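Extended Data, panel c. Modelled sequence:
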Amino acid sequence: MFPDDGDPFFRGLQAVYDEIGEGLPSDAHFPRPGELRDYAPEITASGLFDVVHVRHFDWERRYDAEQYIALLKTFSGHIAMAGWQRERLFGAIRAGLAERPDGTLRRHWAPCCTSHAGGSAPAGGGRRAGLSGAGCTASPGVRRPAAGCAGAGK
């Protein structure tokens, strides 16, 4: 997620992703708070649930270079990169953050939670109810959106 006052570090880092062959498509969208896609229409259309509530939980966290690199090392897109790609990217992160007075970046998180209940009874009777947080997180630094998440960025 990229709020209007978000950290410009991520847009600047896109040049490095382009250089290593992991850039975003030219029509990529950088979603702002509240713009992440939820799956309420699909859940409702399934007939299995009546969507009760959709909520976005947006927050910011600061990372120093090593903390952010440790986070990126857990993302499948970065795990799949060749070693030279990760080293170039991680070097650019270290160098860029070393130039900042506090040495940190501000990364925004935006999970989307859909609570649902009711609808058609499952086979064998009973009610369906549940809570799904389908991983709808816009992720600066993530090479590709998480499964099911439209518009997740780098």
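The beta strands are 50-56, 59-64, 104-109, 112-117, 129-132. This feature is highlighted in the accompanying rendering.
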